[in-house]
Amino acid sequence: MPRLKDGTLVRDLFNHDKREVQLRVHHDAEIFELEMERIFAKSWLPVAHESEIPNPGDFVRRYMGQDSCLVVRGDDGRISVLLNACSHRGMALCREEKGRAANFKCPYHGWAFSKEGRFMAAPFEKQMYGDQLRRDADDLGLVTAKTGMLAGMIFANWDHDAESFQDYLGDFAWYLQAALERTNRGLEVVGPPQRHIMRANWKLLAEQLADGYHARALHQSAGDMGTLGHNPNDPASWGLIGINVSTPGGHTLRCIDMRLAYNFEGLSAESTAEQRLTAIPPPGANPEMVKEFGQNLSDGQIALIADTPPLVMGLFPGTDFFTLMSVSGSEDGSHGPVMVARTWIPRAPDLFEMLTWILVEKDAPEELREKTKRTTVRNFGISGYIEQDDAEAWQGIQKSVQGPIGRKLTGKYQAQVGIVKPDDFHGGGDVHAGFSRDDAQWAWWKRYAEVMSN
Amino acid sequence: MTETLNPDQPSDASVPAFGAGRRLRATEPRYMEVLDFLWEEASVLDRDDLIGWKAMLDQAIVYRMPVCVTRKRHSGESFETATMHFDEDYLSIAFRIRRFVETQAWAADPPTRARRFVTGVRVWQGATPDVFDVTSSLLLVRSADDDYRTDILTAERFDRVRFAADGTPLLRDRKIIADQSTIGTHNLAVFL
After folding, report:
1. What confidence category does residue B77 fall into, taking pLDDT thresholds of 50, 70 and 90?
2. Has residue A354 got a pLDDT over 80?
């Protein structure tokens, strides 16, 4: 049971009765180090999209927590995730962010490794080592992570004893498939992710994913610009009425109630989910693609994306998918979808790096592809005008916890819906229907507390 | 001068490649006018006069900032036009400016302070007599709130500057190639 140097038990940073967490979790270097060991070295983290490395030998270099990794496509098409550090002396093996390689050769002494991370050979091997390296070859490979895939996004986990990727997704697989694996050919990314820094603790982003409440104040300008909150006093128009879902594993998602947010004029009350989806296709899709949904999704999943589509989907600790139906970004008055996958790399207690991938359907016609790319860049990512304001909140809290008085404050999550599951809702997990309150956010903190305390 | 200066070479073969025209010497009047335009533009942006900056843009502007990726020397380009940090036209820039100026945009209110240093300006005659291809180096130093730390962004800019019929220079296109793969600032609520 971890204890901080001042004697505090980590578990005492959380008050489960009051649903409060001490804000020092965003500041303490000791806590940060514990997170690296207990969370980022043992969790499923997204590293790349398979469309970034379509051919054998294609690789990208990414991070899992602070550890640099290579994501490589092998000759058989399978993907390996390898620690980017030579087994000889630890030198960073690969020094470019993407490329194509037949194998990986260390610049320091020249040890060479296969695309799957197997030790292959070393220069002057006989003269230097005799036959020792041949005998030890199996133990000299690169550290490997186990891998999983969702919607083409490659996930990896350094801990080979960790739960399987399917078990990790648990009840959320159903929701994520509905939102992201709806078409026959599926999604791809338009290119490598945007990367930028944030002077804040990584958890301020991660725990915010289930926070609908901030939209009214922090994103007021999006309301003023006609993207959110068309009726400023109506919570539904801020996406605050819907269904939040959480799991004991700390996954969170927010579904918005389409029936309140959009006008299905011209469709009768008895219209089918498919008719509604055809009238207003989900983010990044068009009516043509809607015809394929039935081949990939269950009736319950189709009903989900027609009536209460997931908007923000967070996977503990380091992933989110954000799909927005229709936002603006131009004085031409046009609206378009936002489709992103994001991850965050903790660099220090008060610094993280953000990666933002833009997702498009592989079958998207050029016009839809361009529209998705543009609307996404204008709203999300480093220049996105919605996300610009989120950065202010993350960095603003980080400033508050710099002082010993400020970091004695707590984050407060008392607003609860409880477990409320509509009869016609088919999804699993802990379902909190109604106003978007703190239930799912607190579920995130419960999971964090569990991983950090035991 | 036919080296690849712009990642978006026009596909229309009748349009000369960026920088393919005659290079103007730094003593020529048109060079001076372009240089003066870039300095004026930097000053207008530094003063946070976004409405004034908008008036310096050609309404057909294409304003882009591709993502930069670290590659080996012989592996190809180090920027990726597939993913952009900015992917703008006149009306989307106008949207951003209206948000900053007229609404409660927390990211820009209070505004960050930025100082733009524009140097290494080179000018080529463009495809038509009124258009010039321009490259420049940009150093942008950004300061937010009372933080003593500053964010530094450096980039090469590939511009097309068009002189309107009355002689007014306008920014017709801009492509920004940042030197950082991981952009070292928390947002791009600034124009480069």
Report:
1. confident
2. yes
Helices (H) and strands (E) counted in chain A, each on its own, are: 15, 22
Whole domain around residue A154: which residue ranges? 45-166
Note the ipTM here: 0.93
- Is pLDDT above 60 for B6? no
Strand partners, B177: B156
- Tokens 């490259």 sit on residue: B135
- Above 50 in pLDDT, residue B4? no
Identify whether A25 is part of a domain. Answer: no
Closest Cα in chain A, distance from residue B102 (Å): 9
Q: B104–A225: do the CB atoms touch at under 8 Å?
A: no
Tokens of B5: 């200066």
Mean pLDDT for the stretch of residues B147-173 = 97
Size of interface A-B (CB pairs under 8 A): 130
**A194 lies in the same domain as A160:** no
Nearest CB to B83 within list A191, A198, A388: A191
In a domain, B82, yes or no: yes
Q: Are residues A370 and A226 in the same domain?
A: yes
Q: Which among A194, A332, A373 has CB closest to B67?
A: A194
Same domain, A96 and A234: no
Cβ-Cβ contacts under 8 Å for B135 (sequence gap 6 or more): B5, B19, B120, B121, B122, B156, B157, B158, B159
Model confidence pLDDT, tens digit, residues A410-453 = 999 999 999 999 998 999 999 999 999 999 999 999 999 999 99
The C-alpha of A382 sits at a distance from chain B's nearest C-alpha, in angstroms, of 5
B69: domain CATH number is: 3.10.450.50
Q: Is residue B3 part of a domain?
A: no
User: Chain B window 81-100: which residues touch A at a Cβ cutoff of 8 Å?
Assistant: 81-89, 91-92, 94-96, 98-99
Q: What is the mean pLDDT of chain A?
A: 95
Which one of A382, A387, A390 makes the best mutation probe of the B interface by having the most chain B beta carbons within 10 Å?
A382
For residue range A127-143, list pLDDT tens digits in order. 999 999 999 999 999 99
Same domain, A109 and A220: no
pTM here? 0.95
CA A287 to chain CA centroid, nearest Å = 27
Please list, in sequence order, all residues whose beta carbon lies within 8 angstroms of the beta carbon of residue A366, skipping any fewer than 6 positions away: none
Q: Would B192 be classed as within a structural domain?
A: no
- The separation between CA A136 and the C-alpha centre of its own chain, rounded to angstroms, equals 38
Residue A87 near chain B (CB below 8 Å): no
Write down the pLDDT at residue B11.
47
Q: Cα A330 to the chain's mean position, in Å?
A: 27
